[in-house]
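[Q] Does anyone have a clean structure-token version of this?
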Amino acid sequence: MQSAADRWPRFFMKKLILIFFLFFGFQNSYAQLFELGGEVGFGKTTFDDYLYFSDLFRKYSDNQFNIGIIGSFNPNHSVLFFNTGLFYQRKEDNESSLNYFKIPLGLNIEPGKKFRVIFGGGFYLGCLFMTAGSVDPDLASSKNDFQIGSYADVGFKYHLVNSWNIFVIMQLDIDLTTLYKKTVPTHFGGNEYQNIRSFDYSINLGFNYLIPLRKEQNE
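[A] Here you go.
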């Protein structure tokens, strides 16, 4: 029987997926306030029991790559943008790779007009659907398929022409739940266990398109 700790990430995923589809359904009623686009990013990842920011920028950090679709809902043409999307992410861990689907749900503040500065953050749910290569035995035996995490980003957006925008952001992802338990031998002949999580940063490039207002026809 699964414990409550094992069940609640799956419950959270179901709710987040539902929110994802409802969010994209907003375009039917609020098309003039809905942006849809794509994003690709490259960066570094590290696996540890605690986040050390400097480790992400050292030579022994591993590569990570992500690509996906994004949607933003901007109520009343304000500086607030509610965001979600669906991403594929590949992380390297020594001689293995971890492949995820990720769904973010967050909020950006974007002051400006033609040129906007972006400050944002939120939460994400990651689904580890495949591992490949020489997988760590501890990872293979104790991995959790679902992780919940938080993210923060900063960057800028530039309005090109008509309804098209391009943007560049730097994003930091922090797993809040455990990816796997690492076995650490003690000096007394036994073992201790560390709750290993993943931490990532990436430079993301993307574009989005403001879906134009549909004109109502008079009957």
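[Q] Thanks! Anything notable?
[A] The first strand starts at residue 34 and ends at 48.
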